[in-house]
Amino acid sequence: MPAKSSPVRTDIGYLRRRIKAVPAAVQLSPADQSTTAADQSTAAAGQSLPAAASGGAGLSLSRAVPARPAGGRPTSVQTQPFPAPGIGEVTELNLQVPMLRLNGRQSAIGTLIVTGASAVTWESSTHITGALTADGHFAGTPVETSGNRSLVGYAGRDAVVTLRHVRELRRALFIGRGPATLGAQIFDGASFTLPPRDGNRMFILSLLRVDNLLEMRAEPVPAGITDQDIWQEFGFSMTRRVTLQGNRGR
Amino acid sequence: MANLVPGANAALTAENRGLSKVLVGLGWDTVPSRGPVAELVPMAVMCNDAGSALSGEYLVFFNQLVSADGSVSFAGEDDQEQIDVDLALVPAEVAKIAFIVYVDPDVRGPGTFSAVRSAYIRVATVENRELVRFEVPLSSNDNINAMMFGELYRHREDWKFRALGQGYTTGLAGVAKDFRVDV
User: Fold this and answer.
1) I want to staple A238 with a disulfide (CB 3.0 to 4.6 A). Which of A85, A140, B39, B115 is the partner?
2) Which pLDDT tens digit goes with each residue over B38-88?
């Protein structure tokens, strides 16, 4: 299996040990108090890890207390993601600036258009995977939305993602083998590109949905790598599907 | 329960003492199709007294479920969409909250309101006791791709609701321009 040549990614939060914030003192309701008491009795029996006594790093199974604004309503994003540039701050994703994040509006309005993509691979939030090339070759299983459009597909030579149904998407890969530059554009016209093939290296565009936000990454891979090897490299396994018969005579 | 006509308004808090939270329900019925359909998306925009959105964070829709202050939140889908508004929590600089339904601008034939057979907006108490309803008039919608159904607005110390039914032919981009907000 080909190995990626990228250096250690210090921008990826989940690759580093997190420093857990100390939760503020919370006024528990009677229901919460009873649950906590049950948790404590279970812990006393030795069946779960003790709650973290301090805010230090390490595993904690204590009750999560989501941050709430003054009115007691939940926010749409419970925890703030690590800092990342927005699409307006980046013209090219590369090794120096490998990722950007769209805001909640940019992630969900209209169509994400990816130009220069010779192939696209997707995984839905229900783990349905598939792949399609610009020439129409297909593998895996398509994901159709309630609007009768494919969640990820092609419109002409451009790969497209239906952002109205972004919550149905988990991740996608866009592979560009030239000659057109691989790049993406959102509803408001903001766009970015990826570097062209450079000797033995090329970049593919990786899209990941984290809660309600889309993150885009330029991922370097060996230039000669096949699509199948890229799927394997990124942990995609095509979902098999049954070819349905239109009329079974019943 | 009152049925409003376009442009009409209804006093909410003045006529319902103690009303501090309302549920705004939006719904519509479309012509079924086997092909790509117009996908209607409801949205609430919190505006200052100049009619501008406070910021993008004060625009509430399916992928941004709660306003920055927590006063407006998408709550359920018993209508096509239900939006909770905690009037007591709405910041003082918010003069009105506009309720808009736009056709998602998909590049593969987004469609228009022409496929919409009926549409409404209603305001109810949190117990779902309906206070006002507005059946949006739908005629000549072939080029309409966004519509302002109605708005909650401050009137002195009270909140009122105004029925609108104002269509846009410029879609969500036109809405964003009107409310001076980036989408």
Assistant:
1) A140
2) 999 999 999 999 999 999 999 999 999 999 999 999 987 677 889 999 999
Which residues on chain B are in Cβ contact (under 8 Å) with A186?
Answer: none
CATH class of domain segment(s) B2-31+45-178: mainly beta
To test the contact with chain B by mutation, choose from A187, A188, A191 the residue with the greatest count of B C-beta atoms within 10 A, namely A187
Check if the interface score ipTM surpasses 0.90. Answer: yes
Report the b/e string of B70-83 with b at 16+ CB within 10 A: bbbbbbeeebbbbb
What residues have CB less than 8 Å from A133, skipping those under 6 apart? Answer: A118, A119, A120, A227
- Please answer whether residues A213 and B65 qualify as being in contact, where contact means their C-beta atoms are separated by less than 8 angstroms: no
Nearest CA-CA distance, residue A161 and chain B, Å: 9
Give contacts of B37 with chain A, Cβ < 8 Å: 147-148
* Domain layout of chain B by residue ranges: 2-31+45-178
What distance in Å separates residue A109's CA from the closest CA in chain B? 7
Question: Which amino acid makes up residue A247?
Answer: N
Q: Would you say how long chain A is, in residues?
A: 250
The CB density around residue A204, as the number of other CB atoms within 10 Å, is: 24
B-chain residues near A102 (CB < 8 A): none
Instruction: Scan for tokens 């497209």, then name that residue.
Output: A160
Picking from B83, B98, B91, the residue whose alpha carbon sits closest to that of residue B175 is B98
Q: Which of B38, B104, B182 sits opposite A110 (nearest CB)?
A: B104
Q: Which residues contact A11 (CB under 8 A, 6 or more apart)?
A: A82, A84, A98, A99
- Partnered with residue A206 across adjacent β-strands are A173, A217
**Which of A73, A162, A186, A212 is the best residue to mutate to test the B interface, defined by the most B CB atoms within 10 Å of its own CB?**
A73
Pairing of the two strands B116-125 and B21-30:
antiparallel
Parallel/antiparallel/unpaired status of strands B158-168 and B146-155: antiparallel
Q: Which of B59, B63, B100 to mutate to test the interface with A (most CBs of A within 10 A)?
A: B63
- Residue A127's alpha-carbon distances to A123, A164, A169, A217, in angstroms, are 5, 19, 9, 20
How far apart are the CA of A98 and the nearest CA of chain B, in angstroms?
Answer: 24
Is residue B18 within 8 A of residue B26, CB to CB? The reply is no
- How many whole angstroms from its chain centre is CA A109? 17
Per-residue pLDDT tens digits for A178-216: 789 999 999 999 999 999 998 899 999 999 999 999 999
- Inter-chain residue contact A111 with B182, CB threshold 8 Å: no
